Amino acid sequence: FWICVDCNFDLSAAPASFEYRLTSLPKTHHTSMSTAGIPRAQFDEDPARLVLPNRSVEESIIYYRELTQKYRFLEANIEERLVRTEAKQEELAKNLAVVRMLKRAGEVGLKDVQVDFEIGDSMLVKGVVEDPKSIKVHLWLSSAAMVAYTLDDAERLLAGRLEETEKAIGAVEEEQQFLKTQITTSEVNMARLYNHHLALTKK
User: Fold this and answer.
1) Structure confidence by residue, pLDDT tens digits, 82-138
2) What secondary structure, in 3-state letters, does the chain show?
3) Phi, then psi, of 66 in degrees rounded to 5
4) Can you give the pTM of this predicted structure?
């Protein structure tokens, strides 16, 4: 019995461009970082203190504009990562349900269990599992390695990967919310700094 699911999905990996832009974020005027190492934008009640050391107000405004753009780039990468991880969660849950169905069928002694095999996008063929109790499930461990498991072992593996995926989704959603807050803070800083600049030029 074949199940086409990649159990070697790297939940912690991020695109190379994500890592590159992450390290390019300036650290000046940040107080702390998120668990993923993303700098936290600092809010200050006094807009004059938002001016960067040894820089003019105009240069500081440009800095906050670029900072906001980098936050938005990171947000887009995290959204893509969330979509991929949610798709993997759905795939793992579906295959785990199949394994558990076959396991229950074997436990009650059912024979000739009819199943639908997915052979392509929106393409299914009917098949028969003659003896669910004696079959093995084949899982992809990498793009070039497939390993046969008993139903018990397959259930443990898929359940473990599903739990990891669900935890990963929670972590990604937390980073996503963190970035939304930083974008708002950075945009507010830029607007307040611009108003501060106008007030100075009127004097």
Assistant:
1) 999 999 999 899 889 989 998 999 888 888 888 877 777 778 888 888 888 888 888
2) CEEEEECCCCCCCCCHHHHHHHHHCCCCCEEEECCCCCEEECCCCCHHHHCCCCCCHHHHHHHHHHHHHHHHHHHHHHHHHHHHHHHHHHHHHHHHHHHHHHHHHHHCCCCCEEEEEEEECCEEEEEEECCHHHCCEEEEEECCEEEEECHHHHHHHHHHHHHHHHHHHHHHHHHHHHHHHHHHHHHHHHHHHHHHHHHHHHC
3) -65, -35
4) 0.72
End-to-end CA distance of the chain: 79
SS3 (DSSP) at 3: strand
pLDDT digits (tens, 9 = 90+) for 51-82: 888 888 888 888 888 989 999 999 999 999 99
What would the two tokens of residue 119 be?
A: 């052979």
Please tell me the distance from the alpha carbon of residue 35 to that of residue 75, in angstroms, as a whole number: 15
The 3-state secondary structure of 27-78 reads CCCEEEECCCCCEEECCCCCHHHHCCCCCCHHHHHHHHHHHHHHHHHHHHHH
CA 169/CA 83 separation, integer angstroms? 9
Reading the block at residue 143, the tokens are 């793009």
* β 145-149/39-41 pair status: unpaired
